[in-house]
Automatic annotation (TrEMBL):
Residues 1-25 form the signal peptide. The keyword Hydrolase does not apply. InterPro entries: AB_hydrolase_fold. Residues 103-119 have a biased composition (Pro residues). Residues 85-119 are annotated as: Disordered. This is Feruloyl esterase. Keywords: Signal. Transmembrane segments: none annotated. Residues 92-102 have a biased composition (Low complexity). Gene3D superfamilies: alpha/beta hydrolase.
């Protein structure tokens, strides 16, 4: 029964990825340069976030979401009037009719801030994920991370009860050169009832020798390069501390899929991975280990747990051959 549940979940994840790719393509194919078309099925805030038409979109999430203009409008209402004034009638976007008052300048950052104590799990609105790395030490405690490090957390209201959750936790891993900033709009976790985790890699994921690596490929004492296994394990530990107790799954494409494969190889203990979906990718047989730490072996650990795997490849792929190599 457990095996059927895992494979059913993996099939659902595969469908979710297809939906993600479709919505992403639809969004970029249908939006004009100035603003988005009404057919993209995004909220007012999501539409404005993508088109970057509103001044406050780049501000701190707490300020952005709670901001009210001098006229008493909420951020979403101001964005609706400024960015897509006619979408409520199902028409095409027209010229902006009103410019909202700019939000107040965020206060200066505190020097040497104290890492906040993990608290009860809280939910967020669709297309407005929390930034877990702003309220925890998941980036500062991880080796080899830079200021690029960011972890978004997407928690549907249906997944939280009294600060606790048993919803499945799904990590979405972008490819090399990709970013995490579109998963919040396209992952579909609010419809599916999952908790989404969207980490940002350091110029991709350290799944083998990289041009940006400082350490020699076989120098496992050096900790200047990203330790991806420990990074993901630290995020899981933080989520557990906040009350997220659900099974953990990973879906990744290309370089992100390679990391999904490696996380599965090191599953167990601090990496309680139940299943993965890896797309158009492979895991290198050499070197035996990629990066520092003990959670980065490219081969399944002895006595490790069983992990359900769905791997999707294409026979016409000239970059990642269907037969490997």
């Amino acid at each position: 029964v457990k095996m059927k549940q895992h494979y059913s979940f993996l099939h659902l994840l595969a469908s979710l990825l297809a939906r993600t790719a479709f919505l992403s393509a639809l969004t970029f194919a249908t939006r004009p340069i100035a603003s988005l078309a009404c057919v993209d099925d995004l909220s007012w805030y999501g539409r404005a976030s993508v088109s970057h038409d509103c001044d406050y979109v780049g501000l701190d999430p707490e300020i952005r979401c709670n901001w009210v203009s001098a006229e008493g409008e909420s951020a979403n209402e101001a964005c609706r009037q400024t960015c897509d004034p006619s979408c409520s009638d199902g028409g095409t976007p027209s010229a902006p009719t009103k410019t909202p008052t700019k939000a107040p300048t965020p206060p200066p950052s505190v020097t040497n801030p104290v890492s906040p104590t993990p608290g009860p799990l809280v939910s967020n609105l669709k297309e407005n994920p929390q930034v877990l790395s702003d309220t925890s030490a998941v980036c500062s405690d991880a080796s080899g991370r830079t200021s690029k490090c960011e972890v978004e957390l997407d928690v549907p209201a249906s997944c939280v009860s009294n600060g606790q959750s048993t919803c499945p936790i799904v990590f979405f891993l972008h490819g090399a050169g990709g970013t995490n900033n579109w998963f919040g709009r396209t992952s579909g976790v609010h419809s599916a009832g999952f908790i989404g985790v969207y980490p940002q890699g350091e110029n991709g994921w350290n799944t083998g020798p990289k041009d940006t690596n400082v350490c020699s490929w076989d120098d496992f004492v050096c900790d200047d390069d990203p330790d991806e296994g420990a990074f993901i394990a630290g995020i899981i530990s933080e989520l557990r501390a906040q009350g997220a107790a659900g099974n953990v799954y990973v879906i990744g494409s290309s370089n992100g899929g390679a990391l999904a494969n490696r996380l599965a190889s090191n599953a167990g203990g601090n990496l309680p991975i139940k299943g993965i979906v890896s797309l158009v990718t492979q895991l290198m047989a050499s070197p035996e280990r990629s990066g520092p730490g003990v959670l980065n072996y490219n081969y399944p650990r002895t006595g490790g747990v069983k992990v359900s795997v769905l791997n999707v490849m294409g026979t016409g792929d000239s970059v990642i051959p269907y037969t490997g190599g």
